[in-house]
Design goal:
By secondary structure, the protein is an alpha/beta fold. The protein is built from 19 helices and 18 strands. 44% of the residues lie in helices and 17% in strands.
């Protein structure tokens, strides 16, 4: 049974209260909520501010309990795509749709055609139609579209038998894909469930300060900003943002500097680091922030808006180090498409990993996917599927796949796979039958940074995917890098991801 279903009346004047009540009763008196009545989104707001209203819905209404959501517009401007709006609402609620159609002026053929056309249109726009209800019908017929039942009634009520049929349809429907906004809201809820302290070492960048203010407003993490309090306060006033809840740490704080200097010299003594040299290193805010994590004064760090990837990762490798059994740090992106989530790696760190490193990346990527709600099906990508091609990189991918299988025999993993064989079931049936991954992969491991970086950016720019990351994999404690071209939204997402990682 899905968490919710959504009743979508396709005319403004249809009354659906009795339908909702009958269906709720069939589902053991589950609650009924209208998504277009206060305190939720008003119809006019949804029509003209869909992004804002979608955020309100996912923040206010997402539930683990089965709920009937009813969506009814009382006034629809001419020419508005009502099917598209209903599809959008249902997608953000992760709810399958039951279409409600007034058949008063239609014969059976016209009603059948209308129900079919609307179901197709809803599906094209990302909705998941599972049934249709034809109200005020002067005819009877039994029909279904793509295994979804069609209920015909002479009034605005449905019988107990009909509601049981709809309940059965709900029991057997696939879970709708999760759109980016809903997924981001779920991540925010996870972060809020157990707050972690995330340190930001780049207050000179306005994007970082704006992102910090947004995270504080969401109450998704505690924020530490390294810098001069007077300068940060002046920046906050200039940007008209509230950073009053942030902890400001001066990197010249004598007590912290003494502790960090002594500990850093101890950790790096074999590399010839004295306390004097350690103090010099701590002038780099990335080192200072990393030492905050190592000393337990923060739980994770987000950097890279101004620093290079190397500047961000080097202190982490030297101080925090990698997890036991992991030899390779890699960078993965959660790719949020309109109807599903994939993970791409390595797109940020390891340029040309060898077979052992590639296996490490695959295993780390599977764990990252699992940690963020994606059941991993890992494809190691190549220009060859199986034995269709030959060459040095193909051999590397084959070896890496076998190493990963030996280390994690229960992991769904396969390679080498071409991208089409990894994602297309028909291609997979021809090129790689009996594979546990081909045709349904959701974790993609690329054998060279050139490939991974290009593919994630291509998907981001041409397929409207939201790229969350990079998530640095393999470190003992979470340190995450930013693209220097990151948007404020990207930084917010990365802080939230880091906070969730720190909950482990």
């Amino acid at each position: 049974m899905p968490n919710s279903c959504y009743l979508a009346p396709l005319q403004a004047d249809i009354t659906i209260d009795s339908i909702a009540s009958a269906l709720a009763s069939a589902l053991e008196d589950c609650p009924i909520k209208s998504v277009f009545e206060p305190p939720f989104a008003e119809p006019s707001k949804w029509l003209f501010e869909p992004q804002k209203c979608a955020q309100e819905l996912v923040n206010s209404l997402y539930t683990k309990q089965t709920t009937i959501f009813s969506g009814r517009f009382t006034d629809v401007p001419a020419g508005l795509d009502i099917c598209g709006i209903h599809a959008d609402v249902a997608r953000h609620l992760r709810a399958p749709i039951i279409l409600v159609i007034d058949a008063q002026n239609l014969d059976s053929q016209g009603a059948s055609a209308a129900a079919h056309a609307m179901a197709v249109q809803i599906e094209k726009q990302g909705g998941t139609p599972i049934a249709s209800i034809l109200l005020n019908a002067s005819f009877t017929f039994e029909s279904s579209f793509a295994h979804s039942p069609v209920i015909v009634t002479p009034n605005t009520e449905i019988s107990a038998k009909q509601s049981e049929l709809l309940a059965h349809a709900l029991d057997n429907t696939p879970t709708p894909g999760i759109p980016p906004l809903t997924y981001q809201a779920e991540l925010t809820k996870r972060a809020k469930s157990s707050l972690r302290k995330i340190v930001l070492p780049e207050p000179e960048d306005d994007r970082v300060l704006k992102a910090a203010a947004q995270v504080l407003a969401l109450e998704a993490a505690e924020i530490v900003i390294i810098g001069e309090e007077s300068q940060i306060s002046a920046s906050a006033k200039r940007l008209d943002i509230d950073l009053s809840a942030a902890e400001i740490v001066n990197p010249r704080d004598k007590e912290k500097l003494a502790r960090y200097r002594s500990r850093l010299a101890e950790l790096r003594a074999k590399k010839g680091v004295t306390e004097e040299k350690a103090e010099e290193m701590l002038k780099d805010s990335a080192y200072f922030a990393t030492m905050m994590i190592e000393n337990g004064d923060a739980d994770g760090m987000v950097s890279g808006a101004c620093h290079t990837t190397a500047n961000t990762i080097r202190p982490a490798l030297q101080i925090i180090k990698t997890k036991p059994g992991v030899s390779t740090v890699s960078g993965a992106f959660l790719m949020l498409f309109s109807d599903h989530i994939d993970l791409y790696a390595d797109c940020a760190v390891s340029i040309n990993p060898n077979a052992t490193q590639l296996a490490d990346i695959a295993i780390s990527s599977a764990k990252t996917a699992s940690d963020f709600g994606v059941e991993p099906k890992v494809a190691l990508i190549s220009y060859s599927t199986g034995d269709s091609g030959a060459g040095e990189t193909v051999d590397k991918v084959k070896e890496a796949t076998q190493i990963a299988k030996d280390k994690c025999p229960d992991l769904a993993i396969d390679g080498p796979l071409q991208f089409d064989a990894a994602v297309d079931t028909q291609v997979a049936a021809k090129k790689r039958p009996n594979s546990p991954v081909a045709g349904k992969a959701n974790v993609f491991v690329f054998n060279h940074l050139d490939v991974g970086n290009c593919v994630y950016k291509a998907a981001q720019r041409t397929a409207d995917a939201v790229a969350v990351g990079p998530v640095l994999q393999g470190l003992n404690k979470p340190v995450n890098d930013l693209s220097r071209g990151a948007l404020v939204e990207d930084i917010v997402n990365t802080i939230i991801i880091t906070a969730i990682q720190a909950q482990d």
